[in-house]
Amino acid sequence: MKKELRIFFTALMFLTRLPVPKFTDHSQEYLEKSARYFPLVGWIVAAISGITFLVFNHHVGENIAILASIVAGVFTTGAFHEDGFADVCDAFGGGWTKEKILAIMKDSRLGTYGVTGLTGILAAKFLLLKELAAFTPGMHTSFLDIVSRYQPFLLVLVAAHALSRLMGVWTIYLFDYVTDPDGSKSKPVTSLKPSWATLLLASLFALFPFIFLPWQFALAIVPVVLIAYRLARYFKKWIGGYTGDCLGAIQQVSELTFYLAAIIVWRYIG
Q1: According to its UniProt record, where is this protein located (predicted)?
Q2: What is the pTM (predicted TM-score) of this model?
């Protein structure tokens, strides 16, 4: 149990900026096993974003609450995934060869493609969450009343964060990590493919929130899987596999895809 806790805290330390116990370190052994808990970390990020939304919605209003929840998520992860998405936009927007793409991707400076992509994805996230929140409107007089009214919205939030991180785990399993030619790029999350036990546990964590949602929301998983797979195939075509930044981009795009699919399900199927 202590070993599993250490593996979990390693995943938490890797994906977020939340404090972890002192016995947690950067052990490669535990980092390689930590992928099984990536969706569970998604629960935590979603919980922090969701609580922030509820508090601000109670005291200020829905629009500010959505913006605050996004900011809370960014601060929780240290913009870990957003940074990867921006780097991917810069690299694949400005590079036409594998070497050039990897060189741009490791550059700490943010270019026009990165700024445009980051602005676009944050704006899309705000609009999609606003649309999702609109499905549970109504007058409220207490904090508990808000929690009750926005319960479906909060569950979708948890499902999106967990499922989108699962896509990264499956990408690690299905595709190869791309080594930077000059060796200066950071090492992969794991030098080993996740075991079937890791994939199963990660998948269970990602799918568990759907137990509390209407069954129709399971349909939203399909476009997420398809988009994530196609994006990973695109990376393979251009650079031969994935990098850490590519995994961040897959997480962000998968999260937005799930929000969009959930809106369609909610409006036309649910």
Answers
A1: Cell membrane
A2: 0.92
Q: What's the rounded Cα separation, in Å, for the pair 153 and 158? A: 9
DSSP 242: B
User: Would you give the distance in Å from CA 215 to the centre of its chain?
Assistant: 22
Q: How far apart are CA 87 and CA 246, in angstroms?
A: 9
Dump pLDDT digits (tens) for 57-113. Answer: 989 989 999 999 999 999 999 999 999 999 999 999 999 999 999 999 988 889 999
Distance (Å, whole) CA 127 – CA 63: 10
Q: Are 255 and 221 in contact (CB under 8 A)?
A: no
Q: Output the DSSP codes for 138-205.
A: ----SHHHHHHHTHHHHHHHHHHHHHHHHHHHHHHHHSPBPPPTTS-SPPPS-SSPPPHHHHHHHHHH
Distances (CA, A) of 95 to 13, 175, 247, 248, 251: 32, 21, 18, 18, 22
